[in-house]
Amino acid sequence: MLILPEFYNSVYSASMRAQYPSIAKISTGLTIAAIDTFIICPFERLKVFLQTKHAHVSLKTFYRDNKNQLVRSLFRGLDSLFCRQIISWVSFLYADYKFKQIARSYQHVPESEELSNSTLMVVSTLVGVSNVFIVMPFDMTKTLHQQQSEGFANKGLRETMRTVCREAGIKGFYYGWQPRLIQYIINSALTVTALEKLEHKMKKAKLHN
Q1: Which listed site, 65, 101, 189, 202, has its alpha carbon 20 to 30 Å from 125?
Q2: Cα–chain center distance at 162
Q3: Residue 172 carries which DSSP code?
Q4: Of 128, 155, 138, 147, whose CA–CA distance to 44 is shortest?
Q5: Alpha carbon 181 to its chain's center
Q6: What is the pLDDT, as a whole number, of residue 153?
Q7: What is the fold of 3-208?
Q8: Using an 8 Å Cβ cutoff, are 199 and 4 in contact?
Q9: How far apart are the C-alpha atoms of 124 and 92, rounded to whole Å?
Q10: Under-50 pLDDT residues of the chain
């Protein structure tokens, strides 16, 4: 989140950056999502499998039942997880950039100065709220693909979403939104604040060098 925006700012031309100010943040989100997905997919699959089990199932049971196609089973739902990670990272980094920009404009804080902690708390809450409502439909789809039941295993992203809409409506994508919202706001409060402070430390280090 710190190094990649600097890299993309050096790759894109000045005219491109002027025309699309958030392009480095969006490119960073896409890059992180691409790497992140392949690392966490097996762990997400096992987590969801154990959370949605219908009997006394353990990791040993999972291995025994899937040992002939273990890799394929561990990476079930890779496409929907990849989609979720892209939406999650891009929406988070873009919201972080945009809400901070709005806060600076409203409070007349220049780019060279850090936002106050109270402002960062407001920004992080807005980032968390927007992120959770954008990401949850894709997270629900990913969970359905990775659960113990085989019902959605062979369905694509669009077909799964249509099934959820047909059976439960839009609200079907937002079951359990309250605890997820709290989780996202806490995560945002830590990440948004840390990102702001680390970015300014990097800027100061560059100026001194």
Answers
A1: 202
A2: 22
A3: G
A4: 147
A5: 13
A6: 74
A7: Mitochondrial carrier fold (1.50.40)
A8: no
A9: 10
A10: none
Determine contact, residues 194/135, Cβ cutoff 8 Å: no
DSSP string across 79-142 = HHHHHHHHHHHHHHHHHHHHHHHHHHHHHT--TTSPPPHHHHHHHHHHHHHHHHHHHHHHHHHH
- CA atoms of 80 and 144, how far apart (whole Å): 10
* CB-count burial class (<10 Å; 0-12, 13-18, 19+) for 44: buried
**Cα Rg of the chain (Å, integer):** 20
CA–CA distance, 113 with 1 (Å, rounded to integer): 19
pLDDT digits (tens, 9 = 90+) for 78-111: 989 999 999 999 999 999 999 999 999 999 999 8
Conformation bin of residue 176: beta by default, left when phi > 0, alpha when psi is -120 to 50: left
Chain centroid to CA 10: 25
Structural domain spans, the chain: 3-208
Query: What is d(CA 11, CA 149) in angstroms, rounded to the nearest whole number?
Result: 45
Instruction: Pull the structure tokens for residue 79.
Output: 């496409």
pLDDT tens sequence across 186-208: 999 899 999 998 888 887 777 76
**Helix, strand, coil % in the chain, rounded to nearest 5:** 80, 0, 20
**49-64 exposure pattern, b = at least 16 Cβ within 10 A, e = fewer:** beeeeeeeeeeeebee
Q: What single-letter amino acid sits at 47?
A: K
Three-state SS at 17: helix
